[in-house]
# Entry
Amino acid sequence: MTPISLWDRAETADVHDDRDLDLRQFGRTPVVIRNASVSWPALERWSDQYLSATIGHVRVPALVSDNGMFGAKAHRSSTLSFDEYLRESQRSGSATWCAQQLRMMRDTDLALLFDDIVIPRCIPRGALRAVNLWHTNQESTTRLHFDLADNLLVQIDGHKRLLLVAPAQGEKLYAHPISGEVPPHMSQLVASSVDLERFPKTAGASAIIAEVQRGDAVFIPGGWWHEVRSYPRCLAVNFWWSCDLPISLRMPSHIHGVLRALRRMDANSWVTRAMRYALEVV
Ligand SMILES: O=C(O)CCC(=O)C(=O)O
# Structure
């Protein structure tokens, strides 16, 4: 097993006032921003006790994994209150618990945490699509994937190490097929340990490394593949906003969504058969 070869560290920028953050200067390349959340009350406030008092009642998807891997079905999931999730995750010694991608938009109870964060002014007006909370109780890895949105991932507690691969290298990362269960924006690889006999094209891939500590952020342009390792207790917030991406990146996810919907319909109806035929997956 061989790790994807590492080229370089991501560029680093420093901001003294997070309201000055302007991402346009970095183009479409990932960048680590030091002190990106210095004015966020969350940095001081978000202990597990505070989260329990504020959002303990909110029901969340709690994920559990025996090997610390999340994504591509490498975990089990159940819905618990955030308090139950915290209790279970503190109690369990071996398994890794994760509450990933908890939507914090204003119409959910998690919006109670909005007073503790600052929405960066550099996100274009009207383009914000999601604000998410990410919590994990011990070392964990979110598997290699890309998103169809620009992303600012802000670290509140703990440390993350991201492996980032440019969209142009997507061919070398073996996305899941569009007709399968796992969406095609997920890779079949674990970037730190690639079986090059099974995935020979990955030998030609190279990644950028980004390390973020408490208070830092990383900008991940839409379409960039990323595998994220978090240690130890980790807490982060990310913002996704719309961006222009080539149709070649968007289309596989759209087709996958249509095929999933078709699988839930009557397989023998003429509509289902015609659509599957049109999508060339009969
Ligand atoms: O923090 C993580 O584990 C994953 C974050 C991620 O994949 C994202 O922000 O898109």
Observations:
- Residues 246-282 form one domain.
- Helices lie at 42-45, 48-55, 82-91, 247-264, 270-278.
- The chain is about 15% helix and 35% strand.
- The chain has two domains: 5-244, 246-282.
